Amino acid sequence: MWPPSQASKFLILLVLILVVIYCVFMDTLLYMRVQYYSIETFETSTQTTFQESPTTRLRALSYEDVVWIPCSVNPLCHPTVKALMVDHINHYIYGPLCAILDKALRISDRMLFLTPNTISCAHVFIAMIGANLLTCPNLSVRRMGIVLFQIRMFLDDLDGHVARERKHIRGERSEVGSLGYWVDGICDLIGVVAMMLGIFVYFKQYPPRRGYRGTSASALPYYQLKEMNAAENMEKDHASDVGISYKTKVSLKAIIQVIILFSGQMVLSSVAWNRYINVYQEMFENGNGYLAGRLVTFRSVRFFCATLMWRILNPHSYLHVLSLAVFIDKTWSLLKSVRYIGYVLLLLAVFVTEYLISGFEASVKTSVDGR
Predict the structure, then answer these.
(1) For 133-169, how does the pLDDT look when each residue is reduced to its tens digit (9 = 90+)?
(2) DSSP character for 220?
(3) Residues 6+ apart with CB under 8 A from 42
(4) Which H or E run includes 249?
(5) Torsion on CA atoms 224, 230, 231, 236, rounded to nearest 10
(6) What is the CATH architecture of 17-208+250-366?
(7) C-beta neighbour count of 219 within 10 angstroms
(8) Segment 200-231, tens digit of pLDDT
(9) Where in the chain is the domain with CATH 1.20.120.1760?
C-alpha cells in the first residue's frame, strides 16, 4: 500500500498525462476538421471557386452533418482565428463545460439579469478569496485557493460564451474595442494581479529556502536561518565541516525580482497574444476580398503551427501552469526556472510570428487554388 503522499503524487501525474493526451488528440481532430470540412467564414469561396475539385467536394461537407457531438457543445465545430489560439484547457475543457452549463440553466435565454459583465465582475471576487487562501502555510488550503482560481477562469470562459450566444455569434471571436472587451480585460487583469499578490505574500511570510550541500561550514551565512538535512540530523556544534546541507531563506529582494520577472512575461504574452488575434482576424475574417487565398492560407500547416505556438504561450497557459505549480507545491521552482528563459521563448515567438505574418499576407493575395 502506497503512503498517502506517494498516492497523491501518482494521481496528479496520471491526471496530467491524461489531460496532455486528450489535448494532443483534440488538436489532431481540430487540424483534420479544418482540412476536410467546410468553414463558415469561407463558404462563399468554397462554393464559387473550387466547384470542380474533388478535394473541394469533400471539403464542402458540413462538419455538423457528420459529427455525433452536437455543435452547441463541440469545440471543433466553428474554427475561427481565436479558436485556434485559445489555450487547450479553456478551449477543450472549460468551453464545452460552459456550453453544457448554459444549456442546463438556460443562462443565455432566461437569466437575462446575468449579463456577461456581471459574470466578469463576479469572478473578481472569487479571485480575491482565492488570493487570500494562497497566503496560507497549509498546502491543502492553498490548493483550495487554486480550485477557486480555476473556477475564476471557468467563469471567464462563461462570460464570453454567454455574450456570443446572446449576439448569435458562432465560434470564438474577440470584439476588440467593445465595452465587454475592456470589462473582461480589466477583470482578468485584477484576477491575475490578485493571484500574484497572494503568491508574493506567501513567499514573504514563508520564504523559500536556498540550499548549500558539501560547502565548507566556515563559508556559510550563519546569521541566517539554517536547516540541517533531515537524513544527517546533526546539530551545528557537533557537525563536521563539510557534507551538510544548509538551507537559508531567500531574500525578499530576490522574491520580488522573481515575481516581477514572471509577471512581466505574462504581460508580454498577453499583449502579443491579443495583438496577433486582432491581426489574424483582420486578415482572415474581416476582409471582403481574396476569399480563395484566405481559405488556402487558413488551412495551411504553417498557419496551424503559428496559432499552436500561441496556444501554448498565451497568458491563460501561463496561469494554468502556475496553478499546477502551486497545487504540487513547486511554485518557487517554476518561477525561478522560467524567469529568464521565458522571455527568450516569448521574444522568439514574437519574431517568428512577425516574420510569418508577412508570408501569410502574401499567400492570401497570391493563392488561387488548394495547393
Answers:
(1) 999 999 999 999 999 999 999 999 999 999 999 988 8
(2) S
(3) 291, 294, 295, 298
(4) strand 246-249
(5) 40
(6) Up-down Bundle (1.20)
(7) 10
(8) 999 999 988 765 444 444 444 444 434 434 43
(9) 17-208+250-366
